[in-house]
Amino acid sequence: MIVTLSETAAILASAQRVVITAHENPDGDAIGSSLGLMHMLRSLGKEACVLLDDDIPAIFSVLPGYDIIRRPDEKEPVEADLLVVLDTSTDRTGCTLAAVKAEHLLNIDHHQTNDNSAEYTYVAPGRAATAEIIYDLTRELPVKLTKDMAMCIYTGLATDSGFFRFSNTTSHTMRAAAEMLDHGVTPNVISEALEQKPYQTVRDIGEAIEMAELFADGHAAGIFLDEATTARMKSTESFIGMIRVIEGVDIAVVMKAKEKELCRVSMRSKGIDVSKIALQFGGGGHTRAAGCTLLMPFEDAKRTICEAISKAIWENK
Ligand code: AMP
Ligand code: MN
Ligand code: MN
């Protein structure tokens, strides 16, 4: 059932024990919006915790509350009044739904592809980040912003908007960020922490750039990592940004074979709706940033995604 922002605030206000979760393979928005909401609810005197069914990249240790994020455990279910799923539909949350016995389920998201499968869903595709919705909620509830909340919300805003450069950045995004600065955020502290990479990761970026391929007559660029390469490379997050800047490229794709028949795909575009391509394969996302998982061997997955991208490019000509 779709709810409004004020109904979302009322659902949060009426719960005492709240568990917050977000998508697997969590990014700055998933972690920032989760911790931001946790600090906000705690400041209202509620019991709130964050459970994420994945590893949390160490770069996010700059965020207050990073150390208390836990993994859900199906064998020891947690009881709560409310489970809040952030930054995804309820499906990409690992075992969290099974590990939390909650009376109510609320989903807060900014993806246009949200499937509205939760008991209560609030989706705002016009917001650059789920953290921007958490900011909106601080204005619906009697919350006094703290530096802890501000650092987490700022991180979600900054990471999902490419540090306020992507097309999803609005004046509202920047006003929200400005308010976070008023509450103690130092932008360089966040960006320097998030930009840090181990030496080996920087070398891996070089190797990945060497592997970049152009297709669809130069309108698309891809980096395709087989299972052995994926296993060897610890962090591949920055690869896609390296190839989306190639002149003439409309769609950039990075595909990683995580298992023998499981390949994870990330896409970025300069305007063509890549969420539609992702949806064809059960994924989702935004017009200019989307992803999906292909349950097929590396070569088949590579051919399948390249064909789908090429088709979308020709249809757009
Ligand atoms: P990424 O390329 O992983 O940074 O993801 C780009 C966007 O697509 C993000 O907003 C993700 O939440 C979304 N996305 C990525 N993979 C999937 C998927 N398998 N299902 C739904 N949405 C996805
Ligand atoms: Mn996300
Ligand atoms: Mn997001």
Descriptive tags:
binds manganese (II) ion; alpha/beta; globular; 6-stranded mixed β-sheet; 317 residues; binds adenosine monophosphate; 5-stranded parallel β-sheet; 21% strand
Give the SSE layout.
Layout: H1 5-14, E1 17-22, H2 28-43, E2 47-50, E3 78-86, H3 96-99, E4 100-109, E5 120-123, H4 130-138, H5 147-160, H6 171-182, H7 187-195, H8 199-211, E6 213-215, E7 220-225, H9 227-232, H10 239-243, E8 251-259, E9 262-269, H11 274-280, E10 284-285, E11 289-294, H12 298-316
Parallel strand pairs: 1-2, 1-3, 3-4, 4-5, 7-8
Antiparallel strand pairs: 6-7, 8-9, 9-11, 10-11
The protein binds adenosine monophosphate and manganese (II) ion (2 copies).
Describe the protein.
It contains twelve helices and eleven strands. A hairpin with a 3-residue loop joins strand 10 (284-285) and strand 11. It is α/β, with parallel strands linked by helices. Helices cover 39% and strands 21% of the residues. It has a six-stranded mixed sheet with strand order 6-7-8-9-11-10. It binds adenosine monophosphate (AMP) and manganese (II) ion (MN) (2 copies). One manganese (II) ion binds at residues 23, 27, 29-30, 87.
Strand percent estimate: 15-25%
Number of H/I helices: 12
General shape: globular
Instruction: Give me the strand/helix succession.
Output: HEHEEHEEHHHHHEEHHEEHEEH
Instruction: Catalogue the unreliable spans.
Output: none
**What is the subunit arrangement here?**
single chain
Strand numbers in spatial order across the main sheet? 6-7-8-9-11-10
Bound molecules: adenosine monophosphate, manganese (II) ion
- What kind of sheet is the major sheet? 6 strands, mixed
Mean pLDDT level: 97
Rg result: 19 Å
